[in-house]
Design goal:
Elements (H helix, E strand, L loop, with lengths): L2 H27 L12 E11 L5 H14 L20 H8 L6 H10 L6 H4 L1 H14 L6 E9 L2 E12 L5 E6 L4 E2 L5 E2 L1 H4 L10 H16 L11 E6 L7 E8 L11 E11 L11 E6 L2 E5 L7 H7 L6 E2 L2 H12 L4 E10 L11 E11 L3 E11 L4 E13 L7 E13 L13 E13 L16 E14 L3 E17 L2 E16 L3 H8 L2 H7 L2 E16 L5 E12 L1 H9 L9 E2 L2 E2 L3 E15 L2 E14 L50 E14 L2 E13 L18 H6 L2 E11 L4 E11 L19 E7 L4
Parallel strand pairs: 1-3, 4-8, 9-11, 9-14
Antiparallel strand pairs: 2-3, 5-6, 7-8, 9-12, 10-11, 13-14, 15-16, 16-17, 17-18, 18-19, 19-20, 20-21, 21-22, 22-23, 23-26, 24-25, 26-27, 27-28, 28-29, 29-30, 30-31, 31-32
Helix pairs in contact: 2-6, 3-4
Length: 794
């Protein structure tokens, strides 16, 4: 090393040291002590929250969560929003806030606004007020004599800092002993509303705010279904008597408040309905010059062109003239118009019709005006992203979208998009020492036309209580793997999605046609194909004409609603109708047949997925998942298309292993190459996942998980020994082919999304390795998977 280089190196070292010392001294000097008065005690978090008494049930757990929500006030430097834990760093934000509060310079004002944060004092937290508010909240849960106390704990080394502890004594949980109900309401056609029969208030029920609120809502909703438009839940009040009762029970009496408007105790009927279509600017509704009759006593006001077709409007208006007001019909009208996606705002206004002789027996009438402000017809989106895939591919991408709303005046949406991305492989393959660099790019375009109804004879423009859509989609993309191959694909499909009742969803695909074409094959990839005949069959140029059906069911079960079930079953088939037509035309069954000069796939595929989540308590959950899938190719082509086969591993699968790094069966390539992962697919799949989720601090959640599964072929493949189910001789052999991994993870909830990081560790590989026994990972680092993702894995 030359003398000059040594001088430069010494100079840089000195500069680095000076910068480091400057930063340290700056942070140390960021003390708010000079700005702190004798009564300014800095709040440093919650020391502890303790509970005494209370029944051991879910109700008490919910009450505890409500109380903790009042107590959990985050201090400065909070760790992930935690009320108890802070980062051990200087209070830079509060120091900037105090130091530059009166600064007159531009830089000082900018620093105060951009980086300053107000210091949190004990008086800002106001623990005495929080305790009183919490007592009122617990009273709403039925703990009428709950007591909440607090204590301030000064820091032993700094008396101007303190933590707060809270103690909750629940006391007795009160229940209803006896009940006096509302008088009888007379409805139409001599029907009567008996509060005793409708009420949820029964002897033995918990005396809670929610129970009283639900009773009010139930009575009010029932009356509003029979025309009582002006009746409101707050017109019902409850009087509780706990005097001279030592058994934590109340005598409850319900009655109408004094001074209820007499009009609220009478039914009302809809007379006329006026629709007013406002532009998306601020022009007055009085400028609407054009009118058209939708139906008898239904008149629409608009300018220029009616936004929606008359038939669409007529089907979406669930309220009709000359009918009793019904709250459910009003809600459906609002929901059905909103689901069209054409309006930025919808408002229902009711005006009472004046009568000359308003006697007690005169029928009351309402005129309904529906104000609809039209949304902008065009919507543009531009998305830039950086992909980090489980296959160790990273790279930037860009997507441009253009949507046209209400295309044909029926709420239709035409969505178009073009996209592209560039990726490169950065890491080695798992369970091996192989590493390389692989570049690729992808470009594509798609267009989809969605109708907010089911386009089917007899179903056109019908109204559905729950969302129902018909979607036509056209897409095409080009994928290029540098130095290996190019893959072009084109697709056309249409799909019905509908929900006949809450929790039950159906998706029917009457037709989906895709065409895949392999091109630009290099000598290196041609050699791979020659050594793998099954890969040639699955990636060959072919048409895939499909039909499919998927059913999804989701519901919370159990009395406590702590059990959540989600089930999705799907089945699809390809080529059978075309093949049957070919046979009727005289073609032989075993001879490869073509459509438009190309062989077409023929297979049947089924999948089933079950997710079960058990809520242990307010901070803990146990989530499980089971997935089963199989695809069987026959007839025209004996190998299912590559994209229809199954793979395993990745951020949402077996997290100890990357995508397509396992299977099929106990097969292991003799030599790892850059494209080994492309051939690790199967025709059957079993995957099981279990994950414990628990809250750590603030919005940070931890997880411990176990994943297991594999994929298999249905037919033996001589080039992949041990890859098929038929080669398994016993149940113990099959168990030995189940890959298993475990791991831990973190989830940070940002309210609008969840950021997830999982670290998986492999425990068992489905093939033999140099290590004997069930734990057969050769080296600890060989089966370590790190995944950064958005959302929960299942």
């Amino acid at each position: 090393m030359t003398k000059q280089a040594s001088i430069w190196e010494h100079s840089f070292s000195m500069i680095g040291t000076i910068i480091t010392l400057t930063l340290v001294l700056s942070l140390v000097s960021c003390s708010i002590r000079p700005y702190q008065g004798p009564d300014d005690i800095l709040y440093t978090g919650v020391k502890d929250i303790t509970f005494a008494g209370g029944e051991r049930n879910e109700h008490t757990e919910i009450a505890k969560a409500a109380a903790e929500e009042r107590f959990n006030y985050a201090p400065n430097n909070s760790i992930f929003g935690s009320a108890s834990y802070r980062w051990p760093l200087p209070l830079v934000g509060p120091w900037i806030h105090l130091n530059y509060a009166s600064d007159s310079t531009w830089l000082g004002r900018w620093a105060h606004r951009a980086f300053g944060s107000k210091p949190i004092w004990i008086r800002d937290v106001n623990p005495a007020l929080r305790s009183r508010v919490t007592e009122r909240i617990l009273a709403e849960f039925g703990y009428l004599n709950a007591q909440v106390t607090h204590k301030i704990h000064p820091n032993k080394s700094d008396s101007l800092e303190a933590k707060i502890s809270y103690h909750v004594n629940f006391g007795s949980l009160y229940r209803i002993d006896t009940m006096e109900y509302l008088p009888t309401f007379t409805l139409k056609d001599s029907l009567k509303l008996m509060h005793r029969e409708q009420s949820v208030l029964k002897p033995g029920r918990l005396f809670t705010h929610d129970v009283l609120h639900n009773d009010r809502i139930k009575v009010s909703s029932k009356l509003r279904e029979y025309g009582y438009y002006y009746f409101r839940p707050e017109y019902i009040q409850y009087e509780a008597d706990t005097m001279n009762r030592s058994d934590a029970t109340v005598h409850l009496r319900s009655r109408l408040i004094d001074g209820v408007n007499p009009e609220a105790l009478k039914p009302w009927r809809i007379r006329n309905i006026n629709l007013r279509f406002l532009d998306n600017d601020d022009r007055s509704q009085n400028l609407l010059a054009d009118t058209v009759h939708i139906n008898s006593n239904i008149l629409a006001y608009y300018n220029g062109r009616l936004p929606l077709r008359l038939k669409i409007l007529d089907s979406r208006l669930r309220m009709r003239p000359d009918s009793l007001f019904k709250q459910s019909k009003a809600d459906l009208t609002l929901k059905s118009l909103s689901n069209l996606g054409t309006f930025s705002g919808i408002e229902l206004l009711y005006n009472p019709v004046e009568v000359d002789d308003p006697s007690e027996h005169t029928e009351r009438q309402l005129d309904l005006s529906i104000m609809m402000r039209q949304d902008r017809l065009w919507e543009v989106s531009l998305e830039a992203l950086f992909k980090l895939k489980s296959t160790e591919f990273v790279g930037p991408g860009l997507r441009f979208g253009l949507d046209r709303k209400n295309l044909f005046g029926g709420g239709e949406v035409l969505s178009t998009a073009i996209y592209g991305s560039y990726e490169w492989q950065t890491d080695r393959s798992p369970i091996s020492n192989f590493s390389s660099t692989l570049n690729s790019y992808q470009i594509g375009a798609e267009a989809a036309l969605t109708f907010p109804t089911l386009l089917f004879p007899g179903q056109l423009d019908r109204f559905y209580r729950y969302p129902a859509n018909t979607t036509f989609k056209l897409s095409g993309q080009k994928l290029n793997r540098a130095h290996f191959y190019g893959l072009s694909s084109f697709g056309l499909s249409y799909n019905y999605d509908f929900t006949p009742q809450e929790g039950h969803s159906h998706s029917i695909t009457p037709l989906s046609i895709s065409y895949n074409q392999l091109s630009d094959i290099t000598d290196s990839f041609a050699e791979i194909l020659r050594n793998n005949p099954s890969l040639i069959l699955s990636m060959q140029d072919q048409l895939v004409p499909q039909m499919g059906y998927t059913y999804t069911w989701e519901q919370a079960v159990g009395r406590s609603r702590n059990h959540q079930l989600w089930v999705r079953n799907g089945i699809s088939q390809a080529g059978n109708i075309i093949n049957a037509t070919s046979m009727l035309l005289g073609h032989e069954y075993n001879k490869t047949k073509q459509l438009l000069g190309l062989p077409y796939a023929q297979f049947i595929k089924g999948t089933s997925e079950l997710r079960y989540t058990y809520k242990i308590d307010r901070n803990q959950k146990l989530a499980t998942r089971l997935f089963l899938g199989a695809v069987y190719a026959y007839g025209n082509v004996k190998q299912a298309p590559y994209l229809e086969q199954f793979y395993i591993g990745g951020a949402n699968s077996l997290r100890a292993f990357t995508v397509r790094s396992l299977g099929p069966g106990r097969y292991k390539p003799k030599e790892e190459t850059i494209y080994t992962f492309i051939d690790r697919v199967g025709e059957t799949k079993l995957e099981m996942n279990m994950e414990y989720r628990g809250r750590l601090v603030g919005n940070l959640e931890g997880a411990v998980f176990v994943d297991a599964g594999n994929v298999w072929l249905l037919r033996p493949d001589p080039d992949k020994p041990g890859s098929s189910l038929g080669e398994i001789e016993s149940f113990s052999q099959w168990l030995d082919q189940i890959a298993v991994g475990t791991g831990v993870g973190l989830r940070y909830d940002l309210n609008y999304l969840v950021i997830r990081c999982d670290v998986g560790l492999g425990l068992h590989l489905p093939y033999q390795t140099e290590r004997k026994g069930w734990y057969n990972i050769p080296r600890l680092g060989d089966a370590l998977g790190i995944h950064l993702a958005i959302g929960y894995p299942f």
